[in-house]
Structures are given as structure tokens and as C-alpha cells.
Amino acid sequence: MCLAAFSVIFIAFIHINILRVFCESVLRFGVPPNFASFSIRINGESKEKKVRKKLYDIFSSSDSIGKNYIKRSDENDEEIYPYVSVSFKI
């Protein structure tokens, strides 16, 4: 019983994160609702910094959608990037 409940809750958790990515993409960056989203699994903090640096370079260029972003949100001190980033641990 507990294992079945865990799988249902985990699926709901993933769906909520997918909805968050969709809403942030459309509301913050104004992209049309037909876009692609990707998940990246990174092992290690040093690799995460390298990947974030590369994504920052790509999406903060002058011709990309993320060029006009805010560096830090004052509301909840969550880091804001020129791309949508939702992190969670599995």
C-alpha cells in the first residue's frame, strides 16, 4: 500500500514541476506555449557550475529570449537565470 502511494505522489510531484516549468517559461520569458523543455541530470557540484555557466552563455546572448532577466529575486532569494531552472533531488 505504501509503495503504491509513493509512486502516485512522486508522479504528481513530477507533474507539478513540469507545470512550473511551463508557467515560468510563458509568464517570465513570454515564449509561445509550444516549446521544448529538457531535463538534465548532473552528478557533482563542480559539473553543475560548468553546465550552468554554459547555459548562461547560451541564453544570455543578445539574440536569445533570456537576455532581459533579473539576477536575483527579492521575494524569496531564489536564484534567477536567463533560462527556466527547476532543481530537485531524487
From TrEMBL:
Ribonucleoprotein as UniProt keyword: no
SUPFAM superfamilies membership: Vacuolar ATP synthase subunit C
Subunit structure: V-ATPase is a heteromultimeric enzyme composed of a peripheral catalytic V1 complex (components A to H) attached to an integral membrane V0 proton pore complex.
Protein family according to the UniProt entry: Belongs to the V-ATPase C subunit family.
Taxonomy, superkingdom: Eukaryota
Protein name: V-type proton ATPase subunit C
GO molecular function: proton-transporting ATPase activity, rotational mechanism
Organism: Plasmodium falciparum (isolate Dd2)
GO cellular component, one term: vacuolar proton-transporting V-type ATPase, V1 domain
General function of this protein: Subunit of the V1 complex of vacuolar(H+)-ATPase (V-ATPase), a multisubunit enzyme composed of a peripheral complex (V1) that hydrolyzes ATP and a membrane integral complex (V0) that translocates protons. V-ATPase is responsible for acidifying and maintaining the pH of intracellular compartments and in some cell types, is targeted to the plasma membrane, where it is responsible for acidifying the extracellular environment. Subunit C is necessary for the assembly of the catalytic sector of the enzyme and is likely to have a specific function in its catalytic activity.
This protein's record includes keyword Chaperone: no
Alphabetic keyword roster: Hydrogen ion transport, Ion transport, Transport
Higher taxonomy: Eukaryota, Sar, Alveolata, Apicomplexa, Aconoidasida
InterPro entries reported for this sequence: ATPase_V1-cplx_csu, Vac_ATP_synth_c_sf
